[in-house]
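Hi! If you just cloned this repository, the fastest way to understand the data is to look at a raw example. We've pasted two of them here, unedited. The first protein comes first, obviously.
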Amino acid sequence: MTKNYLLEIGLEEMPAHVVTPSINQLAQKTAAFLKDNRISFSKIEKYSTPRRLAVMIEDIADKQTDIDVKAKGPSKQIAQDADGNWTKAAEGFARGQGMSADDIFFEELKGTEYAYIQKHETGKDVKDVLADIVDVITDLTFPTRMRWDSYDFEYIRPIHWLVSLLDDEIVPIKVLDVEAGRSTRGHRFLGKTVDIKSVRDYVETLRSQFVIVDAKERKDIIRDQINTIATDNDWIVDVDEDLLEEVNNLVEYPTTFHGKFAEKYLEIPEEVLITSMKDNQRYFDVRQKDGKLAPDFISVRNGNSEFIENVVSGNEKVLVARLEDADFFFKEDQKKSIADYVNKLKTVNFHVKIGTMYEKMQRVHQIADYLADVFELSADEKKDLLRASDIYKFDLVTNMVDEFPELQGIMGEKYSSIMGETDGVAHAIREHYMPISAEGDLPETKAGATLAIADKLDSLITFYAVGLIPSGSNDPYALRRQAYGIVRILDQKGWELNLNDLQAYLIKNLTVPATLDLNANEKELDGFIIDRIRQFLNTKAVRSDIIDAVTDGRIFDPVSMINTAQVLQEHVADTNFKTVVEALSRVVNLAQKADFKYSDSLKMDESLFENPSEKSLNDAVADIYDKQSDDAEKLFEQLSTLKDPINAYFEENMIMDKDEKIKNNRLTQLVITNNLIAKLGDLSKIVIK
């Protein structure tokens, strides 16, 4: 016989961003608890509002599953004395299992006999098991926690009530001084405290008290109401899903409404208007049919439609106050020049251990100048890039960005355009922050992409230079995101960049304070960037052994590594892939036995060839050197033709010949061949099945 169980945790209003992760965590921990306790169920329904987290377990078994247990005890030598009598150790073991010593039997394990007891454990009643579900409640983790009263206990918000019902029966649990019952609380202003007669009544009981406890239903209601308002007013509303999620977790009984603001505020850049409405007031912006921003907004009330006119009026007044501030900042900021703001950056720290923001821009100018030539920017693109690199952080000290930090870069673009900079400069200033999340949008212009790479590279090398290196989950300066952004931009643009050459250039030429040692932690930084390349290739479903191959022992060029990995991944299914890689890997492994490395001056002595296969391999390799391509696909095809010459070579020749000259000549041949193969990475790391 199965039943349904309801657990509800009633709280003070939680922050919106905590609600969804917390209910997901509660459901996951509840499922794990039931599995660990051998309680079967069909599914777990999740319910959440700002004031509650609840799970409904459907078709929960009425008892634990019975199990047979074989318990291991002491060795036979300890369990019995010389006369075969049970020792106190054996009797204690049996007692601990609820059995007698006569139930003991022996089995051999790794050459030693041990005492065992076989017993049948009858499952406990589900009510007895659920009494321990309080551990699930107290084990929830939150990004912020608080204490209340005199309790030495931390939680996201104070717990005010608990509901614990098995069908219509209370399952007693207690957290601090809060004992579970069947009483829950309705909407803070519209509802009241009510009893839940049975688990199946939960949703409708709360609905009667102005609480829509199903988060998905609540979100659908908001979306439908927004669409209705948009249709009635002939508007276009592109519902921001993140904002919808946030608003949904701020209300228990949603009623959507719309308001207006004066058209004069439309003279403010729309990004400012949208940010002010969205981030400060949780309003949805509205557009007219022609796509232009309308002087209107949509918001959601936590309640019904009574006195909605007062709510609209109040929200309009609050928004106007915010827009007045934005209008003032926008006009005030334009009274100064870009040069004024840039000069002010001389007093703004990038980081106390590294220097000012102005000094960072000077370094980025140098890096950008180098990259512009590597990436073959046109004269106009390079001109825009270098001008942008001289000023691109200026908006950080404007009033607008001080008030709305999320507008950094955006206001830089707006103000630079107003103050006479070219479109290329303005776009680069905005794009240098991209991507602003791991999978966020990438820069579109070459100048913007180059500035973004230069800015992120500067952050990486300077933070590593002073030992501020991410560890574990600790990454306060978002260096992982910045390094991953570099990899993604290079891949999108198809820009090859030898990071070893870049590092060498910067160490030699970059103007930095004496306190910055660019040689410090250089290898750690290399590994950090390679880890981001590995992360990127994982998103492309590249095999881990192929990732190992291309990221080990080769030229440090992210795009080359990525392209090579994708080429190898595409050829995995080829019928000859196994034999080709095996042949090439034999060269790789044996070439390592040479006590010298490849150089352009390294030559073989053909007069020392003893077998035709030596000349055949030599000719085949020389032909590839003459025609070799930087394209990974073409190089793989060329190297594939070496399979037969390599196999013949190893069949006919002993590499480690007794004659030192012949041995070194053959090792030289392998080192020269391996130099070609190494352009694909360390193929010996590829697992061949």
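Ok, and the second one:
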Amino acid sequence: MWRVLIIDDDFQVLEGMKKSIPWERLEAEWVGEAMDGEEGLRVIRETSPDIVITDIYMPVMNGLEMIEQLKQDGFQGEIVILSGYSDFQYARQALRLQVSDYLSKPVTMEELGEVLERVIRELETKELEKLEQEQTRNRLMMYEPFVQKEWLKSVVTGTLDRTMAEAHLLGPADSIWLKHKHLVMGIELTGTDGVSNLTLTDWSLFRFALANIICEVLEEDWPASEFIELHSHHAAIVFHIPIDQPDKEAAASIRRIGERIAECTRTYLKLSMRTGLGGVTADWKELSDSTEQAFLDLLQQTLAEEPAGRGLEAAESPFQIRPIKFYQELAEAIVYAKEEATLQIVGDYLEQLRRMPSVTPAYLQYLCSELWTILAYSLYSTGIVLDDLFPDQPVSQQIAKVHTVEELGAWLEHKIHGIASHRGWNEHSKHKEAIDFMIHYAHEHYAEEIGLEDLSKQLYLSRNYLNRMFKKATGETFTNYLIRVRMEKAKALLAEGKHMIYEIAEKVGYKNVAYFSSIFKKHYGSNPSELGKK
């Protein structure tokens, strides 16, 4: 319903309009009245009407003075002047104040109704545009961190079409990508046995801790960089290098940073790791080449530690670059429980292997070990332990029997079929859809009263089960997640400087302003008014 407020110092005019305006047909409602401009200001601020119908000449404060004050307050509604004065000077001043219409008394109810219909159509158009903008902004706020992370991963691994990758870079904030050289460092954990028996929660905390260590070192030593988590025990760092810095000098500094990261990882997480460097590239669209070189460097370090015979045999293979793109695509397909897509990715890669002039058994067995690790850690994120699915024979004995590309394909397809037949794999896919729905719902309906009871009815899952599932997937309860979403929205609204505290509270789903302020202070350490001043 559109909210209409009437201001006129003639009581009979007020009563006549209240009775004669076709409220039901216009889908409008009367929300208040006033008999002078000063009282009108107070009632407008209390009721927030969509349309104000006002006279000009009134005691205490006239209509034009009141409208000027409303404009200074940022009033967003429409104003219709209904005055006994048809003086051109008044009309011109009203036009300057951008009122919706200027009508001279006496006016027929038919004429007033037509004006209100037009004003309401304009309001509907503005409201629709505002709603679309708000929805777009909400979706961008929701998805931007995810999009940015996935874009980085896709560029580094070469899994995104270069035209699409380039389209992501739009504004001045991306100048570091356009005006710097770049180098990729590959990271590989070599102490993975130490985390093989961790629970899913512990594993998530472990990866979080590792990312924190790396990001803290980068913040101190090379802020112009990006950390990207890849599949299983692999990660990468993109270093942005000033154009005028010599490549050798930059590589030497970055190598020292890698040594510091490895030392911190040993000290705080009791794990070993290797780092490998790719080549410097002037074009960020060539980053995947630097990534492959970085992981080739890691491969050569691995082979150097193998027994002499095996290391030499693998080193002589013409196919030495690690298939980092294949690894990433396989890991994503496993996480999203897509059996057909997984088999297609494997089939395409095996075809590439068949076209190679010579691929040694040692290299194929090494590849098996890598793929087993990727499968294991990808399934870890779904709560499935790979070793439990195949308890019959130690994996090392299985890998030792692989000597040809066909045997590698048969071994890998057998594992994928075994994974796909596990009920938990498909359940994870369904659970992920439910979690995505809950996250999306929180961002779309944060201004409403949301409860797990409502969501459980929509998803046909029990309230307690939903809460456990959400906490297992995200590390926090749905209630805490919703509070975090609301507080982020509230902070954004506060930064705009256009809303009162009670308005912000209502916009993010809190009817009690005091309670909203207490939650806000608990979340940010200061109440809304204090943060607003900053």
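That's it. A detail worth noticing about the second one: Confidence is low (pLDDT under 50) at residues 139-146, 308-321.
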